[in-house]
Design brief:
Elements (H helix, E strand, L loop, with lengths): L9 E5 L4 H13 L4 E6 L6 H6 L7 E5 L5 H14 L5 E4 L20 H12 L1 H9 L9 E6 L15 H24 L3 E7 L22 H12 L9 E4 L8
Parallel strand pairs: 1-2, 1-4, 2-3, 4-5, 5-6, 6-7
Helix pairs in contact: 1-7, 3-5, 4-6
Bound molecules: NADP nicotinamide-adenine-dinucleotide phosphate (NAP).
The site of NADP nicotinamide-adenine-dinucleotide phosphate (NAP) has 27 residues, from helix 1.
Keywords: Membrane, Transmembrane, Transmembrane helix
Organism: Halobacteriovorax vibrionivorans
Protein name: SDR family NAD(P)-dependent oxidoreductase
């Protein structure tokens, strides 16, 4: 049996305040009139568009403020969803960082900094295993579900041809290994769940904003990326679990 978006009753989108996560929430609300969505954000000042959807979709959208990099907050979210006694059909982790006010991706080794490396690693790699740990038992076990994480092609070790961006690359490579390992554990314990790492393609967001001028890749708006990601996960089945997929459905090398 494959995953069908039109049978997706409950979805959890983590990191939905803006960017690709917001695009996914919006696309799911518009495309699938039966899907109920729980969407998380961290910074209220960045989540205005998400919060403004609440009045239009009050029966189908629940917005929750958490810092998903903190296990206690993921655990509380999991407990509150457990109380509702629902099975999640879709979980997508959209959290990620490339830069912030203090951190820029490294052009070369002279820019490498231990604290920055640890912070990028923390934000980009730990949310996915925490979600898998605390939501494993809440994935719908009656039908095929999807547990996906937005990764990045630059995390592919085989595909690394131009170097640079040490911390971001390493954090996404670590994330990819975590996803692959979760997929293996879930084939034993959560057989109907398809676990995927998805490269969203270059997308106009805060994360890409400082670098987008120089890219030679096709640039997508968030609504295009959201639609691409939903197309990539549609119809996936147990044969696909543990794959690293690009926005155009191509399989990427780890
Ligand atoms: N845009 C691209 O071209 C592109 C390409 C390849 C991969 N990706 C990946 O796509 C995913 C989504 O990124 P995006 O492009 O949509 O960027 P974005 O708009 O900057 O969104 C990043 C998300 O991560 C959260 N976040 C950032 N720092 C955080 C921290 N320290 N603690 C907790 N949450 C934090 C943000 O929430 P708050 O603002 O509320 O903190 C937001 O929800 C990321 O994993 C990124 O690596 C993006």
């Amino acid at each position: 049996m494959s995953f069908r978006l039109n049978s997706c009753n409950y979805a959890l989108i983590v990191g939905a305040g803006h960017g690709i996560g917001f695009g996914l929430v919006h696309a799911l609300l518009v495309k699938n009139s039966k899907t109920r969505i729980m969407a998380t954000y961290r910074k209220r000042e960045n989540a205005e568009k998400l919060l403004s959807l609440q009045s239009e979709y009050k029966d189908r959208l629940e917005i929750i403020q958490i810092d998903a990099t903190k296990e206690s907050e993921i655990c509380n979210l999991s407990n509150s969803i457990k109380e509702k006694n629902i099975g999640l059909d879709l979980i997508i982790n959209c959290i990620g960082m490339l830069h912030n006010d203090d951190i820029l991706p490294e052009k070369s080794l002279k820019d490498f900094n231990c604290e920055a490396f640890i912070e990028v690693m923390r934000v980009n790699s730990i949310v996915t295993p925490l979600l898998a740990k605390h939501f494993e038992k809440q994935l719908n076990n009656d039908v095929t579900s999807v547990f996906a994480t937005i990764s990045a092609k630059v995390g592919s070790i085989e595909d690394n041809r131009i170097g640079g961006w040490y911390s971001y690359r390493a954090s996404k490579a670590a994330l990819n290994m975590l996803i692959k390992t979760i997929a293996i554990e879930f084939t034993r314990k959560r057989k109907k769940c398809v676990v995927l790492a998805v490269h969203p393609g270059t997308t106009k967001t805060e994360l890409s904003q400082p670098f987008i001028k120089r890219t030679t890749y096709k640039i997508h708006e968030t609504h295009e990326t959201a639609s691409n990601i939903l197309n990539v996960i549609e119809n996936r089945d147990s044969h696909d679990t543990g794959k690293f997929l690009s926005w155009d459905a191509q399989e990427l090398p780890w």
